[in-house]
Specification:
Nuclear Transport Factor 2, Chain: A; 4 helices; about 140 residues; alpha+beta; 5-stranded mixed sheet
């Protein structure tokens, strides 16, 4: 039973990564994320709720219209799924105060999402945003 729960949870996370983040399907976002979603590690200037996650995804898709991820691996423990992935995109819109550069970017993330009743209810994650800002030439890229 536990394995079936884990495999179903992995499928939900893959759909979010591929179809919402990678495809911009925000109708599916509304289906996949629980209304009481809680992000334990929100990005700067983002609220730790469903609206904050949606806003972050929209900012990423605006800044990087071809935003998509390569999932390297997923592992599960019951209703929690850990995913290691690399995001890719082309910088076509402003991102964290950096004007569009046209540069191709990539950065790694590791996150854990809890899926209950087919919906994402919680998130914990770490993204290598320093690497991303270095690639974009952000103000702090050269600081030591």
């Amino acid at each position: 039973m536990n394995n079936a729960i884990t495999e179903a949870a992995k499928a939900v996370i893959r759909r979010n990564t591929e179809e919402v983040q990678g495809g911009g399907n925000f109708a599916l976002f509304d289906e996949l994320f629980a209304d009481d979603f809680l992000d334990h590690t929100p990005q700067p200037n983002c609220t730790p709720d469903k609206a904050g996650a949606r806003a972050l995804y929209q900012v990423l898709r605006t800044a990087f219209p071809d935003f998509h991820a390569t999932i390297h691996w997923q592992t599960g423990d019951g209703d929690r799924v850990t995913t290691y992935k690399t995001y890719h995109g082309t910088h076509r819109g402003e991102f964290l105060g950096v004007a569009p550069t046209g540069r191709k970017i990539h950065f790694e993330t590791v996150d854990v999402m809890r899926v209950q009743d087919g919906r994402i209810t919680e998130h914990w994650g770490v993204a290598n945003l320093f690497s991303l800002m270095q690639q974009l030439g952000g103000d702090f890229a050269a600081s030591k």
